[in-house]
Amino acid sequence: MSTEPLIFEMGAPGRRAATLFEMDVPTRPLIDLLPAEALRQDDAPLPEVSEIEIVRHFTHLSQRNFGVDAGFYPLGSCTMKYNPKLNEDMAGLPGFARLHPLQDDDQAQGAIELVYRLEEMLSAIAGMARVTVQPSAGAHGEITGLMVIKAYHASRGEGRRNIVLIPDGAHGTNPASATLADYEIREIRTDARGGVDVDHLRELLDENVAALMMTNPNTLGVFDENIVEIARMVHEAGGQLYYDGANANAIMGLARPGDMGFDVVHFNLHKTCSTPHGGGGPGAGPIGVAPHLVPFLPGPLPARDADGGYHWEDAGEQSIGRVRANYGNFLVLVRAYTYLRFHGPDGLRQVSESAILNANYLMHALKDLYTLPFDRTCMHEFVLSANQQKARGVTAMDIAKRLLDFGMYAPTVYFPLIVPEAIMIEPTETETRETLDRFIEVMRQIDQESRTEPATVTQAPHTTTVGRLDQTLAARKPRLRWSPGDAPRTAEKSVPVGVSR
Ligand SMILES: *Cc1c(COP(=O)(O)O)cnc(C)c1O
């Protein structure tokens, strides 16, 4: 690992990485327009470096980062699949990349058509009537979907419904979104097979329930076999069923949330359709809805003219209103469109089948050494518990940190909350058998180390640029940039372990 100084400690007065042309307009009168106190008296204390130094600086920084292009990235729930570079080529096409959000429709026909066709494909995959691509991420889709549900209930004179039911294994964004949408939350227990406890659900259902939010397969990686019954119960009580689509990588071409009984579905296109999203973005969280909710969708929506052209059509008066620009996070949509067209229906089914196969392969190879709390066929991911290792003084966090020494990212840890010492592993479909075997080997070695040399694990990582960070300090008081006068230092690399998106 490189320990070269960062650019801020390099350089010498007068070195330049760029040459500016002489201005061919007079600058003095412009400067005179600025108030005197806004003018700098001294030069900014910036590093002065040559071009090669600055190129090396950024190249080294990029090498200190870890991404799916650098190694295995089994971060459960996040679907860190490989992003085919074809997607980047398409997203870089000038007609897409340089599009202005307010471009006239007649100058943006291809872009509107892309959204229109993407909407068609997403509707088909989810079994929904219509889709809006406006929301910027899954969580944004959640609040948009809940607002649609709220408007629907209000339109029927049932605005009193103020409760959203959420399983205890749910992702944190579910209760957060429901709270933001001004709902009260009731938590549903998980049953012995890892699904929604149907008896508990029956107890909680009443005339004030607005919706049940679920993901299926859920965050334990298991498919809820009672979903049709659950949907019947929720609908009978007058509630709506919201599908958190973060786990859609397991179901494409195999099952449709619409057929399971869901009324609203969000997609995490950055997960399922391969936009790189480590570090928090960019994302896109389109939502699809069943026919009875279409009037409440945000608008405008793309529409097709009689002559084959496309335009944005304003939403009707029942719409909840706009949640973002028409095109949403457009270049993520371009990548998703490319991804879906590239695979086609059969390819997408194969994606899901391979993701499921890979997860089961890993699960079976590890369950003799790590506790498997719900021992059944998993979908695209599974959750282990490190409770046996913990009894030897090695926690899930230690195991996560130790994996970094082997050039792999860590699985999600301590989520879902219902599994103690949780290690949530999602290999995705894009990894080879050799990579999976290597991961198995490393996980087995770490278990062995927990028996014979636990300090090797509890003091890991040993090979990264920095060791363990104070995670609270790193989150609350991150030092994200250099300022003049900072003491010389080498790069601080932060590898946040198990941060679930
Ligand atoms: C990632 C995720 C979310 C939130 O999605 P974002 O796109 O990160 O906002 C919600 N639920 C589950 C299960 C997730 O994995």
Report on the structure:
- With 501 residues, the protein is of the alpha/beta class.
- The chain has a domain at 127-342: Type I PLP-dependent aspartate aminotransferase-like (Major domain) (Aspartate Aminotransferase, domain 2), CATH 3.40.640.
- The protein has 17 helices and twelve strands.
- A hairpin with a 5-residue loop joins strand 8 (301-304) and strand 9.
- Helix 6 (138-155) crosses helix 7 (173-180).
- The longest helix is centred in the last third of the chain and has 37 residues, at 330-366.
- It is globular.
Q: Which SSEs are present, and which pair or pack?
A:
Layout: H1 28-33, H2 51-64, H3 85-91, H4 94-97, H5 109-126, E1 130-132, H6 138-155, E2 163-167, H7 173-180, E3 184-188, H8 198-204, E4 209-214, H9 227-236, E5 240-245, H10 257-260, E6 264-267, H11 269-272, E7 287-289, E8 301-304, E9 310-313, H12 330-366, E10 382-385, H13 387-391, H14 396-404, E11 412-413, E12 422-425, H15 433-452, H16 454-458, H17 471-476
Parallel strand pairs: 2-3, 2-4, 4-5, 5-6
Antiparallel strand pairs: 1-7, 6-7, 8-9, 10-12, 11-12
Helix pairs in contact: 3-12, 5-12, 6-7, 12-15
The structure holds pyridoxal-5'-phosphate.
Summarize the structure.
This protein has 501 residues and is an alpha/beta fold. It has helices at residues 28-33, 51-64, 85-91, 94-97, 109-126, 138-155, 173-180, 198-204, 227-236, 257-260, 269-272, 330-366, 387-391, 396-404, 433-452, 454-458, 471-476; strands at residues 130-132, 163-167, 184-188, 209-214, 240-245, 264-267, 287-289, 301-304, 310-313, 382-385, 412-413, 422-425. Helix 6 (138-155) crosses helix 7 (173-180).
